[in-house]
């Protein structure tokens, strides 16, 4: 792997499979009485969040702590950023504090790349979502969830998602999750189809390695996984569809549409959900919906990413299943 994780497009197939396989090892730690490894003891991970977040921030914090790293949580609200401090000065402050890794979420697309290439930070930079650009660890946890459900945890070791048909539905235009998933899933051999109203399809999408459809009913019956995206009203400054009811009728997933999916197929959602709009409560609460699994898998994936970026050559998990005194 490279020193930073900025874009899912930076990952080769071997990189991605290595992360997924390492995450399987990390997932076993969650089944232990003491969910902790000494791997990153003495390392400092900073969560630098300029946007609100629940799942991603807590997930990265849990991942770092389970690897025994010291964690500093930095929120733009209530900090010197609210007084006008620049990203550069914030980064230099973190560098002076000895940050080994900076996990950054920023409202501006490209901010993590700027941080990684500026020389302001000596450690690794992990993109936790930048504007409408990318969210690579979300794509990794989505791929991890798909591989576990569609292939099997043990059977999936070393495998990719070759031949699997994945449909991503909703607000593609504003979705960094969609962009990262298209890059990663195609790298892993999956066939990706985007479904959205024409107004919510990005300009230049014809250059993306995927298909585009405007008819959900035409693709749902041949999908191995259907990922529903939230309509991001906070990023919209115009009307992109007539009404919420019309959007739900054409692009929402309800029980009737789910029944047309293949028996093995799963429903995914990166959260937070708009129940009743892109997904009904019936679907969200069904056993086929992996939304809660995705949250749990996010901790394993982020443990794997931090371990591979910072952990050196030590084995991720010791051969013994019983925690040692040191890991306590």
UniProtKB/TrEMBL annotation:
Specify which residues bind L-aspartate according to the UniProt entry for this protein: 83, 176, 230
Q: In the UniProt record, does the keyword Transferase occur? A: yes
Its Gene Ontology biological processes?
'de novo' pyrimidine nucleobase biosynthetic process; 'de novo' UMP biosynthetic process; amino acid metabolic process
Q: Which Pfam families match?
A: OTCace, OTCace_N
For the protein in the UniProt heading, the enzyme class is transferase
Identify the PROSITE patterns for this entry. Answer: CARBAMOYLTRANSFERASE
> What PANTHER family does the record tag this protein with?
ASPARTATE CARBAMOYLTRANSFERASE, ORNITHINE CARBAMOYLTRANSFERASE, MITOCHONDRIAL
Report the protein name in the record. Answer: Aspartate carbamoyltransferase
Origin organism is Streptomyces piniterrae
What does UniProt list as this organism's lineage? Bacteria, Bacillati, Actinomycetota, Actinomycetes, Kitasatosporales
Gene assigned in the entry: pyrB
